[in-house]
Design goal:
The protein has three helices and 14 strands. By secondary structure, the protein is an alpha+beta fold. The chain is elongated and about 90 Å long.
């Protein structure tokens, strides 16, 4: 047994001699060099750059790509456009013109059947004649002291009332014929012969094709140099020709949302081949 115990203690001593020797001082750490960790570069920070907001562009003004070059979209409009209607209630006797027909100033466009109003005019004229004769008789009797001054004044008042009735019926009969106020063409016919015309209801729409204007919307910053009388040239798409014009009027206010202003120009000379509704481009002369 003693031999066995000695062998066991020898084995323990061998195992202890194989372990590393630590410092005998209490709390001392072993002399182990730390392993250096590879340096890690910090990740690059991503900076979000927001593009600057663009200024809103006017939505109404249609200009070319050069912006301030002075070229802008236009539309031709008639200077005068009228809806003709009857001022009295009557049946339409004649309505000779149709859509697109041309007419001259003073030409009859609509005639109404005014036989009833003509009869009333004749009646008023007869009553006015009788009132005039009565006044003459009363005036002679007044000279003979057969009637008083009151009767003479009443006869004179009756004559004035009869003359006023005659004037009223004459004006009514004149309304039975509607004539053209200017040279132009028929844009739309809304009635037909033998149809009953109601007061205020349109019968014909007429336009003056001899005097056309240009309507356009330009940026308000053009007001620095754009004035009435400024020259421009107009290229009309429908006919493929260019015509001279000049600024006639500038709008009274600027649209605060689109920063635009209305401008009206007038064509120079007679242009019978142009019609309202045509469009094109206007090029302004140098400033």
């Amino acid at each position: 047994m003693k031999f066995s115990q000695c062998a066991a203690w020898c084995a323990v001593a061998v195992m202890l001699s194989a372990q590393p020797v630590w410092s005998a001082q209490p709390g001392a750490q072993p002399d182990v060099k730390p392993v250096a960790k590879p340096a890690v570069k910090p990740a690059a920070r991503l900076v979000s750059v927001q593009a600057p907001a663009l200024a809103p562009q006017p939505a109404s003004a249609q200009t070319d790509t050069s912006g301030d070059a002075g070229k802008i979209r236009i539309q031709l409009v008639s200077r005068d456009q009228v809806d003709l209607s009857s001022e009295i209630a009557a049946k339409i006797a004649t309505l000779p013109l149709r859509d697109g027909d041309a007419f001259r100033t003073g030409q009859t466009l609509v005639s109404l059947d005014c036989s009833l109003y003509t009869a009333q005019l004749r009646k008023a004229q007869a009553e006015a004649g009788a009132a005039g004769e009565l006044l003459n008789v009363d005036q002679r009797l007044a000279q003979l002291h057969s009637v008083g001054e009151l009767e003479v004044q009443q006869a004179a008042a009756k004559l004035k009332a009869s003359n006023a009735e005659v004037a009223y019926m004459q004006a009514t009969v004149r309304k039975c014929v509607i004539t053209a106020p200017f040279d132009g063409r028929v844009s739309k016919r809304s009635a037909a012969p033998q149809q009953f015309a109601e007061p205020g209801k349109p019968l014909l729409t007429i336009i003056d094709t001899s005097r056309l204007e240009l309507k356009m919307i330009v940026p308000s910053k053009w007001l620095v140099w754009l004035k009435p009388g400024h020259a421009l040239s107009v290229q009309v798409d429908e006919v493929g020709k260019t015509y001279p014009a000049q600024v006639a009027r500038i709008g009274a206010r600027v649209d605060p949302v689109t920063q635009t202003v209305d401008v009206t120009a007038a064509l120079t000379g007679s242009v019978p081949e142009l019609l309202p509704g045509m469009s094109g481009w206007a090029t302004f002369a140098s400033r």
